[in-house]
Amino acid sequence: MKKYKILVKGNNYKTVVGSRAREFGFHTTRFIESDSDIAAKEMALELVKEELEQIVFNNQAGSPVIEIPQFIEVESFGDHDVPGSGLTWHMEGSRD
Question: Which domain covers residue 78, as residue numbers?
């Protein structure tokens, strides 16, 4: 099986910080082992979406966007936790 490092990026995700709901974007990396490039991307997206279900809420007007801007095959996962977890958030409108 091949090993992949997949960067996932999201925008327009609404979550609560303090007592106020705000829109954020995020970056995260997932490490996936798969026979297929397509299956690896789908697995990474599904893992991130499952994690997001617990912490974000959006209405139809604020449709969130999720994409894979970087996808590379790697020799090994090194010291990284596989498949990885967590998100690095940024406020919408800030540099990403």
Answer: 2-91
